[in-house]
Amino acid sequence: MKKRLGFDLILLGDSTSGKDTQANLLAKQYRVRLARSGHYLRQLKSYKYRGGVPAPTSLIIPFLNYYLKNLSWHRNIIFVGAARLKHEAEYLVKHLKQRNRDFFVLYIKIPKSEIIKRSKRRAERLEDTSLTLINSRIAYYKTKVSKTVKFYQTLKKIKFINGNQSIKAVHHDIINAIHDYQRSKRN
Questions:
Q1: Domain locations in the chain as residue ranges
Q2: Are 37 and 132 in contact (CB under 8 A)?
Q3: Among 41, 69, 157, 186, fewest CB within 10 Å belongs to which?
Q4: φ and ψ at residue 163, rounded to 5 degrees
Q5: Cβ-based neighbours of 71, under 8 Å, separated by 6 or more
Q6: Cβ contact 64:92 at 8 Å
Q7: 123: helix, coil or strand?
Q8: Pairing of strands 103-109, 76-80
Q9: Is the pTM of this model over 0.85?
Q10: Distances from the Cα of 5 to the Cα of 42, 97, 131, angstroms
Q11: pLDDT at residue 1, rounded to an integer
Q12: 129 pLDDT tier (thresholds 50, 70, 90)
């Protein structure tokens, strides 16, 4: 029987850090609904991946609204790769708080050399193999997503996970972070 998570989880991470892989593993253990922005964007006929340029907020907010509108007390949500920009994160947090939903953020961190190596191995999008595009995505995370990370740090709602280890070890660290957060809520 799957366990209840007890809070919504925002799973962020560097490009190619394994966010979807870890979200899928968590969904096998917990009664959660996955809100995967990448999957959502790939389903939109009007959206075309633009060489490392992230999806505009005008597409992310409706995505967030869909999941916020359909919240269930029986299942928590794992927002995977969503609300990367600070104003998107502020929007998400505001609406979770309005609905009395607790949340926690995990950020999977990997070094630049690993991002490049993993991006080159990606087969889904051939654009990812261009070093210029890979460096563009790395720069985006460093300049834009870092502001979002700082926002979550001010809320004391974020934990960093070392993504530069085996999938199993990353998952173990994520489970430990979840258990630590669950224990902190009880105290």
A1: 8-186
A2: no
A3: 186
A4: -90, 0
A5: 77, 99, 101
A6: yes
A7: coil
A8: unpaired
A9: yes
A10: 28, 17, 39
A11: 80
A12: low
